[in-house]
Write a structure and sequence with these properties.
SGTA_dimer, Serine Threonine Protein Phosphatase 5, Tetratricopeptide repeat, 2 domains, Single alpha-helices involved in coiled-coils or other helix-helix interfaces, about 160 residues, TPR_rpt, mainly alpha, molecular adaptor activity, 8 helices
């Protein structure tokens, strides 16, 4: 629990610094204070718990982490599951062209099981569900796609 408390302490410290800036409206500053109070209450942390402080500010840790991740080499080989999922997506696309929507749903579902973080698979399954008049399922799939990639405009259009 100590690493969790240290993280929360860092978040509280960051939020306190932000709340003292003049960039927020009074309502926003009040919201920051409420957030701080909630975190302090839930994790039983006070300002006196300075032993939880880190030598780096939270924003520095975050920035360093992002920079390290950006410098990692991109892998040229895809994990086997991702490759198979993409094959299933292509198979589902072929079923859609043949108007075999049930088989397309099955392919996209299997692709999602292998790679649940790919918004395209959900959006494609939504198209097949829509063709089967399964509109609630189609909306759920569009919402899942948007949750994964909020900028995926096709999912918004398809949901509409």
């Amino acid at each position: 629990m100590s690493s969790v408390k240290r993280l929360v302490y860092a978040v509280i410290h960051f939020l306190r610094e932000q709340s003292q800036m003049d960039t927020f409206t009074p309502d926003e500053q009040e919201s920051l204070e409420v957030a701080i109070q909630c975190l302090e209450t839930v994790f039983k942390i006070t300002l006196e718990d300075t032993h939880l402080a880190s030598s780096q500010h939270l924003i520095e840790m975050f920035t360093n982490s992002i920079q390290k991740n950006d410098m990692l080499p991109v892998s040229r080989s895809l994990p086997e599951g991702v490759v198979k999922a993409d094959q299933l997506k292509d198979e589902g696309n072929n079923h859609m062209k043949e108007e075999n929507y049930g088989a397309a749903v099955d392919c996209y579902t299997r692709a999602i099981e292998l790679d649940p973080n790919n918004a395209v698979y959900y959006c494609n399954r939504a198209a097949a569900q829509s063709k089967l008049n399964n509109f609630r399922e189609a909306i759920k799939d569009c919402e899942s796609a948007i949750a994964i990639d909020p900028k995926y405009s096709k999912a918004y259009g398809r949901m509409g």
